[in-house]
Amino acid sequence: MSNLIISRRCNQSCPYCFAEESLTPAAAADDFISLDAFEERLDYLDRSGIDQARLIGGEPTLHPQFAELVQRALAHGKTVVVFTNGLMPDAALAALADLPAGRCGVILNITAMEGAAKGAATGTASLQSAAAQRFARQQAVLRRLGQKAQIGVNLYRLDQALDFILPLIEDTGCKPALRVGLAQPVLSGKNAFLSTKHYAQTGAAFTRFAVAAARQGVRVELDCGFVRCMFSEDEYAQLTAAGIFPGFHCGPILDIDLDGTVFHCFSLAEKFQTHLGPQDRADELREALVRRTQAYRQAGIYKECSSCVHAMDQSCSGGCLSNTIRRFIYQPFSVAVPQS
Amino acid sequence: MILNRFRPAPSLRWCTDSAQVMIVNEPPQEMVILRGIDAAVWSWLGLNYGYEDVLAFAAAFLNQPTETARQKLNQILYYWVELGLLVPDERP
C-alpha cells in the first residue's frame, strides 16, 4: 500500500489533522503534483505490483487536473481510491461519478461535520451555518457517488457523536461500510488526538456503535493504531460475534509527498522518511522504514505493553508508533561517581 | 576522593515500562533494555537522586551491605560508560 499526495492545499481545517504541517497556508504554485511526477508515481506503483492509486492530500480533489490524474491512473490499470473531505469541486465529482464502479472508491471523511450533522438532524439554527452547508455538500457527494463512496470517521474526542452516521449511510445510499480511525498525534503533538487514557472508554462506546452498525448491515473497518486492551473481553466477544475482527497493527503506510519524500506515515513524517528513487519499490521502502523504527517497536503506548501477552503473541503491536515514541524522553541528570 | 561526573549521552531517549527501562540510541536506533537493579538505578538517577542516595537505595534493593552495593553500583555505572550510555559531564 502507498498513498500518493497530490495536493498540499486543503479547504477544511480539522482539529486532528496530522497532515497540517505539510500543508501550505497560502496558495502557491507548487501546491499540486505535476503530471510528470504523477506519472513517476504510477510507474512506482507498477513496479511495486500495487493495483490501487490511493490519492490523498490536503484535499486531493482540489488538484486543478484531478480528472486527468484519475484518467492516467486508470490507463495504468489502477483502481482509484480517493481520500476526501467531500468538499470537492463539481468537475472532480463528475470525474469520479463517471468512473466504473469497480475502478473507483472514495473514502469521505465525515468527522469534521459532526456538529453540523447534529444541527441538521435537530433542525437548529446551525443548519444555516457554514458548517451545515458543508455537510449538505458532503451529503450531496455521497448521494451522487452512491456505492462508490464510503464514510470514514476519525475518533479524536471522548464525547464524539457517532449516532448520525448510520442514518446518513441509509439516507444517502452510499456503501454500507464505515472506516474508523483513531486520531493519532504527530510527534510534536500539535494536533488534537485521542489520549491513550481514554482508549478504554472509547473502546466501550465504539463497541456499542459497531454492534448496532452490524445489525443494520453496515460493515465497520478499523484503521491502524487500535490496541487490544481498549476492549474488554466481553466487548471483544461482541465485536467478533458481530463479524468485526479488529486488527491491532501499526506499520509503514508509505505516504509519498509531492517532492518524492516518502513518510512512514503522516504522524511520523518528521522523524522517519526517505526519498523515492527511480527504481525503488514499495517493499524495499517499507523494509527500510521498518528497520529504522524497529527499536521503538519493542515498546508500546502503555508501560505494560512490552510485557503484554498480546505483544508476545504478536496479536497487538502496542498501538500507534507515534504515541509510543512520544513516551521516550531525554531527562537530564548528572551523577558523580567515585573513580574506580 | 576523586569523582567522575557523568550524564546520559545526548543521543539517548528512554521510557520506563512496568518492568524495565527501554533506552534508544538514535541514530543508529539501537535499543538497550535495563531490568532489575539496572533499571532501578537508571530510574533513580532520572529522578535526580545523587550517588549516595542511589547507593543507599541499591543496598536496600539488593539487601546487601553498603560496600557490596557500592561495588555493584560502580560496576553498573562504568559499564554504562563503556556502552556509551553515560558520557563525561564536563558542564560547569
Order of helices and strands of chain B: EEEEHHHE
| DSSP strand count of chain B | 5
Largest sheet of chain A: 10 strands, mixed
Mean pLDDT of chain B: 93
What order do the SSEs of chain A take from the amino end to the carboxyl end, as H and E? EHEHEHEHHEHEHEHEEEHHHE
Q: What is the molecular shape of chain A?
A: globular
Instruction: Report the major sheet of chain B.
Output: 3 strands, antiparallel
Describe what is shown at a glance.
The complex is a heterodimer of chains A (340) and B (92). By secondary structure, chain A is α/β, with parallel strands linked by helices.
Note down, in words, how this protein is organized.
The complex is a heterodimer of chains A (340) and B (92). Chain A is of the alpha/beta class. Helix content of chain A is 33%, strand content 14%. In chain A, strands 7-6-5-4-3-2-1-8-9-10 form a 10-stranded mixed β-sheet. Chain B contains 3 helices and 5 strands, in the order E-E-E-E-H-H-H-E. Chain B is an alpha+beta fold and 92 residues long.
Features:
heterodimer; A: alpha/beta; 33% helix; B: alpha+beta; two-stranded antiparallel ribbon; 45% helix
How are the SSEs ordered, and which strands pair?
The complex is a heterodimer of chains A (340) and B (92).
Chain A: E1 3-5, H1 35-48, E2 52-56, H2 66-75, E3 79-84, H3 90-97, E4 104-109, H4 114-122, H5 130-145, E5 149-155, H6 165-172, E6 177-182, H7 199-215, E7 219-222, H8 233-241, E8 255-256, E9 261-263, E10 273-275, H9 282-293, H10 309-312, H11 321-325, E11 335-338
Parallel strand pairs in A: 1-2, 1-8, 2-3, 3-4, 4-5, 5-6, 6-7
Antiparallel strand pairs in A: 8-9, 9-10
Chain B: E1 3-8, E2 12-16, E3 21-25, E4 30-34, H1 36-46, H2 51-62, H3 66-83, E5 86-88
Antiparallel strand pairs in B: 1-5, 2-3, 3-4
